[in-house]
Design goal:
The complex is a heterodimer. By secondary structure, chain A is mainly α. Chain A has eleven helices and no strands. The longest helix of chain A is centred in the first third of the chain and has 18 residues, at 8-25. Chain B is α+β, with helices and mostly antiparallel strands. Classes of the chains: A mainly alpha, B alpha+beta. At the A-B interface, α1, α3, α4, α6 and α8 of A face α1, α2, α4, α7 and α8 of B. The complex binds zinc ion (ZN).
Chain lengths: 233, 448
């Protein structure tokens, strides 16, 4: 049997590290006090609950860097999902962070995101973010995933029917924006399995734009909403 | 050495525990401060215990969801559009969402006494149901804004179009301009998309799609509509003419004689065995016989032999494809499975099929030799009872032009329109073999 042997110096260094870092980390553990007040932890502690740019970029208030990019996708997603419902002082930077991660997604990540996008027991924010990540990924697999998301029938008793619709609408747009040429065929083939008129309409809009005969579906939406807001004076 | 092994294991466990405590989860990022929470609880008289007690950090708890939403409503800001001036106020001033919401709220609690509802508002007291807790952030914020509008007395009316038409319960607003709950909700989504300054990009995208989606079914008078145009084939010709934006443009048609059909792609020419696509947007300089593999007419590939008719049409927010064979057997397409449902004999001799009746009603209608009109219900795959009116013999087809006006192709091949008062006026000069309304995908029509 192979014995486990760790050099005493390594252990000593590890203990030193623990002793140094532990006090910083302990207060982050959830206490049983229901009325937790993160701000009371003091300004020098990491993650005081303030929504700062530093949080998003992965640099904690104490200056301790946390490389969010190195987190596994599940944890990274959990982190990002929490940001969706909060004010965002630097949306461009958020976009850059999302894009960078999305572009580096591997085959298994893409499969996971597709699955999460369709799991109805996940939060709507998480499901939509999963689709958004696929939209920003350039691989052929992400286009195939978006096609399958579009084709999957909307659950008959969805918790949020509107979300089911906009998830699929975004999958349509993702196929329209996709850099791979095959995305056009995937979108067309997927639309044959869809009977929702609004999705078919969006699909055709996207396909018309993709061959240069119309503005993008997103621009068409913005134009329409702009006119709508102008109606009321 | 055993001691070292145990120690190493303990260290491993400790380091794993530390890893789990690393501030990488949304709960750790997104805590609401106690001061913020207390302000929201006071401003909105939130019954905290009904939401499960105090919770400032974990987004899984309903209390935190509500506090988060209020924070986003308070802190979310909008830019003043450059091209617009302060005369544009909208229903709710865009910098006043929080005070407005506060002024319309006498209390907020959590319950599940009306399980089919997402939330309800009784005299300014909101009760958020289980359905509310399951919504996305945008969905929950939308519900708060929606409910708040009811406090000022805005009520819904029964839906007369869209998927909730005939549902019995009052769920729609007259139109966007009424400024009811659906109107203010849609105004919020539109502002988030167009003028939102400090919103998460994903939230903004969701808001755009939510606004566009809701425009289709929450108002009895549509606010945004897909554009349509009139396509007409000259008698004896092969190049269809598109009437769009007040102009007539010649499009390339295949050298085949058939009937113009509306398709999801735009239009095609159907001649019993196959359909050939028409490009509505550009011309190639030659006249290609493009098999229509773009629209649902592609489904014809799977059929052996000629058909009397094939139609793609919309009803109640859904797309249907039906085929009618020479023996008057009808079959509908099952989209999720990608297969045709079994054919069923209609029990009548179909002389003609139309998708628009002279009164403007749309659907799929079969007309027999006595000019009786039978609506087809594709969901149930059955024919409805004959309409009280008969198909007028002098009318060949009815279509709509880009303004929604009814246009008639008469049996003498002339094209007319008819005013509300019933006066007929020539619409196109010359002789035409078929007319059809086609979808145009370059913009939406925003109705006045
Ligand atoms: Zn309502």
């Amino acid at each position: 049997m192979k014995k486990v042997s760790v050099h005493p110096v390594v252990i000593a260094l590890f203990v030193l590290l623990l002793v140094t870092v532990m006090p910083w980390l302990l207060p982050l553990k959830h206490s049983t006090d229901p009325l937790r007040e993160p701000a009371s932890l003091g300004p020098s502690r990491p993650f005081d609950g303030q929504d700062t740019k530093e949080n998003k970029s992965g640099v904690v208030a104490s200056g301790l860097p946390v490389d969010l990019g190195s987190l596994n996708l599940k944890d990274w997603m959990r982190n990002q999902v929490g940001q969706i419902g909060r004010p965002d002082e630097n949306p461009e930077q958020t976009m850059a962070v999302l894009k960078a991660r999305a572009e580096s997604l591997g085959t298994q990540d893409i499969r996971d995101l597709e699955q999460w996008a369709l799991e109805t027991d996940r939060s709507g924010d998480e499901r939509f973010l999963a689709v958004e990540m696929l939209v920003m990924n350039p691989r052929l697999e992400s286009a195939q995933s978006l096609g399958r998301i579009l084709m999957s029938p909307e659950p008959s008793r969805a918790a949020e029917p509107a979300l089911e619709n906009i998830l699929r609408a975004r999958a349509v747009e993702g196929l329209g924006l996709h850099p791979r040429r095959e995305a056009t065929r995937i979108l067309r083939d997927s639309l044959y399995r869809v009977s929702d008129r609004s999705l078919i309409d969006r699909g055709e809009r996207v396909l018309t734009a993709r061959r240069g005969a119309a503005p993008s579906a997103m621009d068409q939406d913005r134009q329409a909403l702009h006119s709508l807001l102008k109606k009321i004076r | 050495m055993k001691v070292w092994g145990v120690y190493a294991s303990l260290l491993l466990v400790s380091s794993l525990a530390i890893a789990q405590n690393l501030p990488v989860q949304d709960a750790d990022f997104g805590c609401v401060t106690r001061a913020e929470a207390e302000k929201y609880v006071n401003d909105f008289r939130i019954n905290i215990s009904s939401f499960g007690g105090w919770e400032l950090c974990s987004a899984d708890k309903d209390t935190k969801k509500l506090l988060n939403d209020l924070l986003l409503i308070e802190k979310g800001s909008f830019s003043e559009s450059e091209s617009e001036n302060s005369l544009i106020r909208g229903f709710i001033p865009q910098d006043k969402y929080y005070p407005w919401l506060k002024s319309q709220t006498r209390g907020v609690s959590r319950g599940n006494d009306v399980p089919y509802a997402t939330a309800y508002n009784r005299m300014g007291y909101f009760t958020m149901q289980d359905g509310w807790a399951q919504l996305s952030t945008l969905g929950r914020v939308g519900v708060m804004i929606h409910e708040a509008r009811h406090t000022a007395g805005y009520r819904h009316i029964p839906c007369t179009s869209g998927p909730y038409a005939g549902a019995g319960t009052a769920g729609c607003d007259r139109d966007y301009g009424y400024g009811g709950s659906h109107g203010v909700e849609m105004e919020y989504y539109s502002r988030v998309q167009l003028r939102g300054v400090n919103f998460h990009p994903v939230y903004k995208t969701m808001a755009r799609l939510m606004a566009m989606g809701r425009a289709n079914f929450v108002f009895n008078s549509p606010v945004l509509r897909a554009k349509e145009a009139l396509l007409a084939m000259p008698e004896g010709g092969t190049d269809p003419q598109l009437f769009y934006q007040g102009k007539r443009v010649s499009r390339e048609g295949p050298a085949v004689h058939g009937v113009l059909k509306r398709t999801s792609f735009g239009a095609s020419i159907f001649e019993g065995f196959k359909a050939l696509a028409i490009d509505l947007y550009q011309t190639s300089g030659f006249h290609p016989d493009l098999p229509d593999v773009y629209s649902y007419y592609k489904l014809l590939d799977r059929n052996n032999g000629a058909l009397k008719d094939f139609e793609e049409y919309d009803s109640g927010g859904k797309r249907y494809a039906v085929r009618l064979d020479e023996q008057d057997r009808i079959s509908t397409y099952n989209f999720p499975t990608g297969k045709w449902n079994p054919s069923r004999p209609l029990g009548l001799s179909v002389m003609k099929t139309v998708t628009t009746l002279p009164n403007g009603e749309r659907g799929y209608f079969l007309i027999d030799s006595e000019n009786r009109i039978f609506p087809f219900d594709a969901d149930k795959n059955v024919l409805g009872p004959a309409k009280s009116e008969s198909w007028p013999e002098h009318i060949e087809t009815v279509a709509h032009d880009e303004n929604g006006e009814r246009v008639f192709l008469r049996s003498d091949r002339s094209v007319w329109s008819v005013s509300r008062e019933g006066n007929w006026t020539p619409y196109l000069s010359g002789s035409w073999s078929s007319i059809v309304s086609v979808p145009v995908y370059d913009a939406y029509e925003v109705l006045p």
